């Protein structure tokens, strides 16, 4: 697949989706969001892809909205709304895709770039990566569903502080806040994401997909609904060939060979 602003490659069960506007620190423009949407759709529909790794080409993950482009202005409310819809479509793509998405974050992940990173299921970040929400400092506003996700991750007061002050925080602080999973030296970010992907790929595919679905849905539901989702997912897993293989492999003391069925 050839896209203007995103590099899409697949190998060994991993889809690598790389933002490719390095001259602008991968800052967001409408074309980038459209290309990202296409890349995520391709990964979601490819039966050979088990895990997606989202990263940025060059010195940064994503520096948020391209303010040089924004300074040129938009052609009215409809034009702005269209760009917001394209950003939010990517959020929907990421949250509804059954395959896990790992963010490999280095350099700047600020504004829309921070929102994009936090849309991933798991994040491996550089120790010195820079996260933050500087939108209020340039008279803009957060989008990409962050007002929904961030308070659930860090609490209402901290979410308000992060967005209202726009203060940057590094990868170590992001991990302390529970926003990222693993922190590594910047030269090890992609390798760390790939290692995490391989660990996930050792597990049963259907179980992994249903885990993401149940947690994403259950986090927004009441306890009764969450447990009903768990029941449905558990029954589905019990009835798979992989469940039988997992039990046999345990008894025979060997690695399981899962087939995703």
Gist of the model:
This protein has helices spanning 30-45, 67-70, 77-96, 112-118, 146-154, 156-165, 171-176, 189-201, 205-218, 223-238, 241-252, and strands at 6-11, 14-19, 51-56, 101-105, 108-110, 122-126, 130-132, 169-170, 182-184. With 261 residues, the protein is an alpha/beta fold.
Main attributes of the structure:
six-stranded mixed beta sheet; three-stranded mixed beta sheet; 11 helices; Lyase 2-enoyl-coa Hydratase, Chain  A, domain 2; 2-enoyl-CoA Hydratase, Chain A, domain 1; alpha/beta; single chain; 261 residues
Q: What's the arrangement of secondary structure elements?
A:
Elements: E1 6-11, E2 14-19, H1 30-45, E3 51-56, H2 67-70, H3 77-96, E4 101-105, E5 108-110, H4 112-118, E6 122-126, E7 130-132, H5 146-154, H6 156-165, E8 169-170, H7 171-176, E9 182-184, H8 189-201, H9 205-218, H10 223-238, H11 241-252
Parallel strand pairs: 2-3, 3-4, 4-6, 5-7, 6-9
Antiparallel strand pairs: 1-2, 7-8
What does this structure look like?
- 49% of the residues lie in helices and 15% in strands.
- It has 261 residues and is α/β, with parallel strands linked by helices.
- The protein has 2 domains: 6-201, Alpha-Beta Complex (2-enoyl-CoA Hydratase, Chain A, domain 1); 205-252, Lyase 2-enoyl-coa Hydratase, Chain  A, domain 2 (Orthogonal Bundle).
- A 6-stranded mixed sheet has the order 1-2-3-4-6-9, with helices on both faces. The chain has a 3-stranded mixed sheet with strand order 5-7-8.
- Helix 1 runs parallel beside helix 3 (77-96).
- The longest helix is centred in the N-terminal third of the chain and has 20 residues, at 77-96.
- It is globular and about 65 Å long.
- The model has no long low-confidence stretch (mean pLDDT 91).
